[in-house]
TrEMBL record:
Protein name: BTB/POZ domain-containing protein 19 isoform X3
Gene3D superfamilies membership: 1.25.40.420, Potassium Channel Kv1.1, Chain A
Region of interest (Disordered), ranges: 230-288
SMART domains: BTB
Comp. bias (Low complexity): 234-246
UniProt-listed SUPFAM superfamilies: POZ domain
């Protein structure tokens, strides 16, 4: 009776290095992506992407035919984040950076890459700081990442004054802002919280009036995330030459009349001394 064979393993490092050399290498590639707003060319190999990721298996299936198909446009995922996704698919490892990890996390969620998602979440927790925390909160609220949302709110509670002055705070969506205002542990007095909320509303209304792609309703321009109701998601492909919608729905959302911690939504609160007179809207500004 023949004995079962024994599986032996060679060194993993040379294998990973060899696959890494194929990353974005036009030689032997059979698919080209046009990635990000700049439509940067990224070359890849259909069989490798299809066997590693169900999203690409569906996207690059038989309908594309043999040979080099037309470029596949992925306009809403930044090129750096997309290359990080490919690096993970090719080598099962990835180099993450603080400035782009939320974009990689977003792409991992959209493409259904659970292991990469967990790696990104672990990294975000390690590098979380005042400048990153509100952007991370936005991603957590958008994709229902409860543990990350709790970690972000706890961090903001401990660094309230600094976090409320960041660009990320001004660019929170209404649901993300409400999740923060419900906390009764923010280390900031009510007057400062009211001013911060009014600044948030002004930025959102200015963005809606000017038609630009920033402000409440989605994460900031630096992250490139589309907020709730946004036009695209990083995993959505479109034919080459298609017009890009121009970003998410950036609308000015009316906030509850009270930002007082512990008060229910819509419940009026007497304004603190030196702030809006009784009867004035908490978030007065351009008409909604």
């Amino acid at each position: 009776m023949e004995t079962p064979g024994l599986v032996v393993h060679g060194e993993a490092a040379p294998f990973s290095t060899a696959l890494r050399s194929l990353l974005n290498n036009p030689q032997y590639s059979d698919v080209c992506f046009l990635v990000g707003q700049e439509r940067q060319e990224v070359f890849a190999h259909r069989c490798l992407l299809a066997c590693r990721c169900n999203f690409f298996q569906r996207l690059l299936g038989p309908k594309l035919g043999s040979g080099m198909p037309s470029p596949v446009v992925l306009s809403t995922v930044p090129a750096e984040a997309f290359l990080a996704v490919l690096e993970f698919l090719y080598t099962n490892s990835v180099r993450l950076h603080r400035h782009s990890v939320l974009e990689v996390l977003t792409a991992a969620i959209e493409y259904g890459l659970e292991e990469l998602r967990e790696l990104c979440l672990e990294f975000v927790v390690k590098v979380l700081d005042v400048e990153l925390v509100c952007e991370a909160l936005q991603v957590a609220v958008t994709f229902g990442l409860g543990p990350l949302q709790e970690r972000c709110i706890a961090f903001i509670e401990a660094h309230s004054q600094e976090a409320l002055r960041t660009r990320g705070f001004l660019e929170l969506s209404a649901p993300a802002l409400l999740s923060l205002l419900r906390s009764d542990k923010l280390r900031v007095d009510e007057a400062e919280l009211v001013l911060a909320a009014r600044s948030w509303a002004r930025v959102g209304c200015a963005g809606a009036a000017g038609g630009r792609g920033g402000g409440p309703g989605g994460a900031g321009a630096e992250t490139g995330f589309a907020g709730p109701g946004g036009a695209e998601c990083p995993g959505r492909a479109e034919p080459a030459g298609a017009a890009h919608p121009g970003g998410a729905d950036r609308r000015c959302v009316e906030m509850p009349r009270s930002a007082k911690r512990g008060c229910g939504p819509g419940r009026p609160v007497p304004p603190p001394e030196g702030n809006p007179a009784p009867g004035a809207s908490l978030l007065s500004g351009p008409a909604l």
